[in-house]
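TICKET: design request
STATUS: open
ATTACHED STRUCTURE:
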């Protein structure tokens, strides 16, 4: 039951009908039940795990706001670490041991990763942290279950915030405006995914599927494939976000935008403010700012930027090339901060239209180059980059 399949839309229509038929006090239960049905269809093996995690988080928070929140947070991170990063950390430790001729030999064994674990974990962490801080005052199991199991955002986001979501459920109305906007966003998302993203996927082909294929590709084919991938990943991910936003709107619920023309931004900071917006804001709120943000001097700001972006890369995938991709963007963000400090904002005001165009082009170029690190191991990405610029 994926967003492009008919089963999803059958569940969506039935869920919307039930949502508006049941008494308002049962609406959260209706949404939670729909999410359980959805997740039970797409990932039945992990439905029990997700349900148990939900129950334990609720019980720990109910037990004690502060101490229970710490235990719940540690448990959420433990589940995420075990299922998604166990092999990554074991392999890394083993490799470090080899460098120092120490035979550690931790078992790497593959563990199946529960569907949507990263998104669910981030929403759990948001709820736990805000409840401990007092930003969320009410602890209701049905509302927490509805928040976590809300199926339009369960698999691919956008990453919601509990207060904004929960306050919309009871007063939601079925209106012509919501139906029109919701239907439009769903159709737009399907067009992006099926027509545009899948077309670019054909252009990308198998160029980045294996090291042998990459080394055999010509520079022009590498450039074509990489640029095509830039549009494919944007259209694919933003298409799914559009479908999620449109689906939620049918319930009368407005969830955050996730992509706003990111490739038309003039610098890397603007790019991240418009690319995967809910993830970027989550990282700023729950990693960058708690570390000290940009309040404690340039050195601390640089450190915090690299930590935040490195963890952002690791969130995308449990391999080192994702971490390097995140650090690459950290370098770009730090470099842009340095540029702003060194170059007055009105330095090129007389060339503003030209500078704006060139800034968009340069930003897109730098982001596109970075996608090499996202889709290929570091050594393959470096080799491909050399080949693209005629050095190999």
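STATUS: resolved
RESOLUTION: sequence designed for all positions
ATTACHED SEQUENCE:
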């Amino acid at each position: 039951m994926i967003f492009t399949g008919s089963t999803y839309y059958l569940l969506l229509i039935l869920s919307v009908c039930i949502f508006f038929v049941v008494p308002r006090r049962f609406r959260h239960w209706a949404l939670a039940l729909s999410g359980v049905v959805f997740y039970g269809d797409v990932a039945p093996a992990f439905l029990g795990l997700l349900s148990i995690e939900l129950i334990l988080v609720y019980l720990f928070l109910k037990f004690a706001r502060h101490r229970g929140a710490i235990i719940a947070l540690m448990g959420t991170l433990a589940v995420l670490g075990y299922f998604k990063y166990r092999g990554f950390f074991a392999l890394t430790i083993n490799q470090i041991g080899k460098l120092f001729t120490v035979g550690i030999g931790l078992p790497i064994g593959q563990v199946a990763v529960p569907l949507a674990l990263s998104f669910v974990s981030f929403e759990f962490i948001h709820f736990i942290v805000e409840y401990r801080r007092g930003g969320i005052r009410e602890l209701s199991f049905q509302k927490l279950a509805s928040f976590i199991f809300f199926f339009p955002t369960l698999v691919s986001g956008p990453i919601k915030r509990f207060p904004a979501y929960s306050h919309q459920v009871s007063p939601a109305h079925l209106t012509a405006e919501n139906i029109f906007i919701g239907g439009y966003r769903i159709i737009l998302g399907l067009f992006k995914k099926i027509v545009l993203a899948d077309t670019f996927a054909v252009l990308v082909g198998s160029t980045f599927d294996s090291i042998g294929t990459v080394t055999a590709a010509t520079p022009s084919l590498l450039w074509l494939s990489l640029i095509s991938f830039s549009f494919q990943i944007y259209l694919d991910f933003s298409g799914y976000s559009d479908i999620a936003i449109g689906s939620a709107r049918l319930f009368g619920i407005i969830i955050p935008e996730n992509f706003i023309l990111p490739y038309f931004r003039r610098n890397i900071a603007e790019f991240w403010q418009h690319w995967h917006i809910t993830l970027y804001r989550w990282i700023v709120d729950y990693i960058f700012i708690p570390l000290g943000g940009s309040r404690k001097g340039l050195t601390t700001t640089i450190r915090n930027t690299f930590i935040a972006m490195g963890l952002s890369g690791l969130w995308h995938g449990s391999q080192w090339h994702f971490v390097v991709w995140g650090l690459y963007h950290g370098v770009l963000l730090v470099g842009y901060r340095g540029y702003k400090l060194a170059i007055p904002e009105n330095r090129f005001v007389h060339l503003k239209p030209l500078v704006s165009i060139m800034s968009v082009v340069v930003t897109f170029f730098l982001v596109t180059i970075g996608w090499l690190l996202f889709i290929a191991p570091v050594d393959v990405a470096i080799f491909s980059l050399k080949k693209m610029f005629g050095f190999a």
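CLOSING REMARK: The radius of gyration is 22 Å. Residues 65-99 form the longest helix (35 residues).
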